[in-house]
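Let us practice reading a record.
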Amino acid sequence: MTSNIHAFSIDLIVFDLDGTLVDTKDDIVAAFEWTLDQYEISPPEKAQIEGLVGTGVQDYLRELFRPTYPDPL
């Protein structure tokens, strides 16, 4: 009997952690609130930040900085 299993090595495993495997919205909100605080910008409501989950970090930053910096990126 022969085996059809081939040996291979795994160099990297990537997980999408914005709600796919674990709920990280609170962590994402905290990170963006901290970032805005560094620029002395009052953060929007949590729901607005959560609504941006999945759009990508550039879209997050553009939307959250827009009231203070019209064209941040």
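A brief commentary: The chain has a mean pLDDT of 78.
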